[in-house]
């Protein structure tokens, strides 16, 4: 069985023995302290025999017949001399205003602590128990029971006289009694009985299990968990009984209540006391063991166990061995367990000692975690319960955790925890940094130093940077990049880097870092020089961010050599800061770079660099011929004669053909295609683009003696020139490759054209008919004629004032209206009339008559 160390409060006047250390990692459930002050004085001269606990005070009985009222700290508030011999039991009602006391010499006293109410009786035998009614303070509950050889109930009746009645006798001495609500439970030599005070009926008898044990040496322990649950401990047996109502159909002559044993189990040791703890059970056990020296059975330290009851067994939750004074001389009957229901306090009473056990709170939990060096769990527990803990501070636990990690050599973890634990406390941060410096671990804490809110002294950051500069250039560069430049004195760090560069002037890491430091110090020119020397990718970002365009006007070639694409984009995006003329001038000696710049400029805007288009012809011809022809096509500013001269010199056929056609010399262009390129498809394509009949004639004449060219023409000419013109010119007997296929293709193309024409005609006729029908339906609709309409001839209202008279109105489809008499008489043979207004312009649909008669 695991043993927990006794936690106790030591007074200035005495020291106590400690419990054995718990060797397991399981945390104890209870903590312990001795009840001192007045109790210490009492037990130095006397011995405790019994005690009762009320939520307001304690009542302690002694072997010398004294009863002491104590506060919860053990200070004496009242003293009663009851008897010269041992006090056997003390009973209090729920209000704590009345007390019952019985002693070994047969005396029984029941009296009010704050009133003159009192009862005295002396019996001819020792009285072992007394219990006052829980509601004794009320006038109609003035009852108490006593127990010696028989169980007597005293009730106050008429004239304030006490009337005794025997509840039970004949089964030996009454050893224990507990009164709860309307139920009284008592134990005698034979077992445990329960009496229902309402019906005055005994409802159960729970026999004693082990009859070999003397009931005076191993007394029964009784405890009510609630008004209907009784816990019985006797010997090493525990029974939990539940009082239940009997069903009406089962009553007959039986009591209306019965008892069911819901849990029953045996323990390893003899039971001296019981108390409930939520759904668990606290058991005080009397222990005997064999001495290693004498091999004789002797008394060991009592145990306080917490168990979880099961139907036929129990599960041990915790077990503590208690070092009480004089435990070697105590018997099972000398120990008692009392408890305070409201506060979960448990009092272990022995003749020479009173120990208080209480549930461990969060402070105690943190104490145990710190003792076991579980600092992270302790810190987490403190954070969760920071509003309830009183003894501990989160910061103190955190600092202890950091120190523990440092001692274990886990410097990186310790440094990481500093962020959470130290928070914004700059003094603690600086203290920890110096501590890390002493053990040579500044690098470990460097990543976690605060950079904003709070900010430490510049000296702290400089100290860390110097540490890296001496041993780790890459780490130093990383810190400079990550840390804001205002954390430290930039001038001091720059000078330190310059000093190191004197030893190693080509160190790229230090040069890059120095450029960043110059940037923080707003010395952008120096930073730019270093970046260009290193060909560093951040050079363009630096120029953009700090508007350094005035500083790069003479460094354009360097930028283009480093990254021509980014450099050109940057220059073109900032033409207002560096003009096109300045860039072209700077690149005069580097025509390949000049071409890259002008090419991108032309792509962005065909007109901006028009003054350089003549120059670009040579640049394209020299460095980028694939883009020469697109340039010639898109540019409207390049001199065609100059371009033609350059292309003819370099024998650029395609470009020359384009220039000749653009200059209007299409025949020369076609001739060059046929003679130089000998590409009939391209020649045909060129003729199609020009759409010139003379060109087609020249093409046919040139191709007439070349069978492959004739095949190409037959395959492609059908939609532009009548193929008969070509076919008639072919010499008889000339062998033309794929002639049949070409003729078939011509016929297919012709059929296709015919089909397309017929299809288009059908669509046109169908659409015309559909629109005509739609117009007809529209014109056949009725036209509204009302008082607002007027005659277009006489301009008077179209409808007469007297609608009862007959009238004739003529309405045309164009919506013009006339009185019939206002229309001129038609001279034509046709009876169809037309609107005078519309027919004056043109005669068309919508002008025919729609006559209304009445």
TrEMBL record:
One of the record's GO cellular component terms: cytosol
Transmembrane segments: none
Basic and acidic residues: bias regions: 1-13
Region Disordered, residue ranges: 1-33
Subcellular localization(s) per the UniProt record: Cytoplasm, Cytosol; Early endosome membrane; Endosome membrane; Late endosome membrane
Molecular function, one GO term: zinc ion binding
InterPro entries tied to this protein: Beta-prop_Vps41, Clathrin_H-chain/VPS_repeat, TPR-like_helical_dom_sf, Vps41, Vps41/Vps8, WD40/YVTN_repeat-like_dom_sf, WD40_repeat_dom_sf, Znf_RING
Ranges for domain RING-type: 791-839
Keywords: Autophagy, Cytoplasm, Cytoplasmic vesicle, Endosome, Golgi apparatus, Lysosome, Membrane, Metal-binding, Protein transport, Transport, Zinc, Zinc-finger
Protein's membrane topology: Peripheral membrane protein
Residue stretches of each CHCR repeat: 568-712
Main location: cytoplasm
GO terms under biological process: cellular response to starvation; endosomal vesicle fusion; macroautophagy; protein targeting to vacuole
Keyword Membrane: yes
SMART domains per the UniProt record, alphabetical: CLH
Compositional bias segments (type: Acidic residues): 14-26
Family: Belongs to the VPS41 family.
Chain's role: Plays a role in vesicle-mediated protein trafficking to lysosomal compartments including the endocytic membrane transport pathways.
Protein name stated in the entry: Vacuolar protein sorting-associated protein 41 homolog
Source organism per UniProt: Chrysolophus pictus
């Amino acid at each position: 069985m695991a043993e927990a160390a006794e936690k106790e409060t030591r007074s200035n006047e005495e020291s106590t023995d400690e419990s054995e250390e718990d060797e397991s990692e399981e945390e104890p459930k209870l903590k312990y302290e001795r009840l001192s002050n007045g109790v210490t004085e009492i037990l130095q001269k006397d011995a405790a025999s019994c005690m009762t606990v009320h939520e307001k005070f304690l009542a302690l009985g002694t072997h010398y017949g004294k009863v002491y009222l104590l506060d919860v700290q053990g200070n004496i508030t009242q003293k009663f001399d009851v008897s010269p011999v041992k006090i056997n039991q003390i009973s209090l009602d729920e209000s704590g205003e009345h007390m019952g006391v019985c002693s070994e010499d047969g005396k029984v006293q029941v009296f009010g602590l704050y009133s003159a109410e009192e009862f005295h009786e002396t019996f001819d035998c020792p009285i072992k128990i007394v219990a006052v009614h829980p509601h004794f303070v009320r006038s109609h509950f003035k009852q108490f029971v006593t127990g010696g050889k028989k169980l007597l109930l005293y009730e106050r009746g008429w004239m304030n006289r006490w009337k005794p009645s025997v509840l039970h006798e004949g089964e030996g001495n009454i050893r224990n009694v507990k009164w709860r609500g309307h139920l009284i439970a008592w134990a005698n030599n034979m077992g445990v009985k329960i009496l229902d005070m309402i019906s005055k009926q005994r409802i159960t008898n729970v026999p004693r299990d082990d009859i070999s044990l003397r009931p005076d040496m191993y007394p029964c322990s009784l405890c009510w968990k609630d008004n209907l649950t009784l816990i019985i401990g006797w010997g090493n047996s525990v029974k939990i009984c539940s009082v239940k109502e009997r069903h009406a159909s089962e009553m007959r002559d039986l009591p209306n209540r019965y008892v069911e044993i819901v849990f029953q189990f045996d323990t390893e040791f003899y039971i001296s006391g019981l108390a409930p703890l939520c759904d668990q059970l606290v058991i005080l056990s009397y222990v005997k063991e064999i001495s290693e020296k004498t091999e004789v059975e002797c008394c060991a330290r009592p145990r306080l166990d917490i168990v979880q009851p099961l139907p036929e067994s129990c599960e041990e939750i915790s077990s503590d061995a208690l070092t009480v004074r004089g435990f070697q001389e105590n018997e099972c009957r000398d120990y008692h367990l009392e408890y305070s229901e409201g506060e979960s306090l448990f009092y272990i009473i022995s003749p020479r000692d009173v120990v208080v056990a209480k549930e461990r709170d969060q402070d105690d939990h943190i104490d145990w975690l710190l003792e076991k060096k579980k600092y992270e769990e302790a810190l987490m527990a403190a954070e969760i319960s920071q509003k309830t803990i009183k003894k501990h501070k989160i910061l103190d636990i955190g600092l202890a955790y950091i120190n523990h990690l440092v001692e274990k050599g886990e410097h990186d973890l310790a440094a990481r925890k500093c962020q959470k634990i130290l928070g914004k406390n700059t003094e603690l941060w600086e203290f920890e940094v110096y501590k890390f410096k002493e053990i040579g671990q500044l690098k470990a804490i460097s990543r976690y130093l605060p950079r904003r809110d709070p900010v430490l002294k510049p000296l702290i950051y400089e100290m860390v940077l110097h540490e890296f500069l001496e041993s780790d250039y890459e780490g130093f560069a990383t810190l400079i990049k990550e840390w804001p430049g205002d954390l430290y004195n930039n001038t001091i760090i720059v000078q330190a880097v310059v000093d190191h560069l004197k030893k190693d002037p080509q160190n790229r890491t230090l040069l890059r870092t120095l450029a960043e430091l110059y940037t923080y110090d707003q010395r952008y020119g120096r930073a730019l020089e270093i970046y260009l020397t290193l060909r560093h990718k951040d050079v363009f970002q630096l120029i953009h961010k700090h508007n350094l365009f005035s500083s790069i006007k003479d460094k354009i070639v360097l930028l283009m050599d480093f990254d021509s694409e980014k450099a050109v984009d940057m220059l073109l995006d900032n033409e207002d800061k560096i003009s096109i003329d300045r860039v072209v001038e700077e690149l005069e000696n580097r025509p390949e770079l000049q071409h890259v710049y002008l090419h991108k400029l032309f792509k962005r805007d065909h007109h901006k660099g028009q003054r350089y288009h003549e120059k670009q012809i040579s640049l394209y011809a020299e460095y980028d011929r694939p883009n020469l022809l697109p340039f010639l096509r898109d540019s409207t500013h390049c001199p065609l004669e100059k371009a033609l001269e350059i292309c003819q010199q370099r024998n650029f056929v395609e470009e020359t053909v384009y220039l000749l056609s653009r200059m209007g010399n299409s025949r020369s262009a076609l001739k060059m295609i046929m003679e130089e390129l000998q590409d009939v498809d391209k020649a045909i394509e060129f003729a199609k683009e020009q759409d010139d009949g003379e060109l087609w004639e020249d093409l046919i004449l040139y191709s007439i003696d070349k069978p492959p060219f004739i095949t190409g023409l037959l395959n492609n000419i059908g939609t532009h020139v009548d193929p008969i013109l070509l076919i008639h010119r072919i010499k008889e007997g000339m062998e033309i490759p794929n002639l049949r296929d070409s003729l078939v293709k011509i016929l297919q193309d012709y059929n296709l054209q015919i089909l397309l024409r017929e299809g288009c005609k059908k669509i046109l006729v169908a659409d015309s008919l559909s629109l005509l029908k739609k117009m007809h339906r529209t014109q056949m609709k009725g036209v509204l004629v009302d008082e607002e309409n007027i005659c277009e001839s006489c301009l008077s209202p179209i409808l007469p004032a007297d609608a009862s008279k007959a009238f004739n109105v003529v309405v045309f489809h164009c919506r013009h209206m006339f009185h019939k008499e206002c229309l001129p008489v038609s001279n034509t043979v046709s009876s169809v009339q037309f609107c005078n207004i519309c027919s004056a312009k043109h005669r068309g649909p919508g002008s025919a008559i729609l006559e209304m008669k009445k």
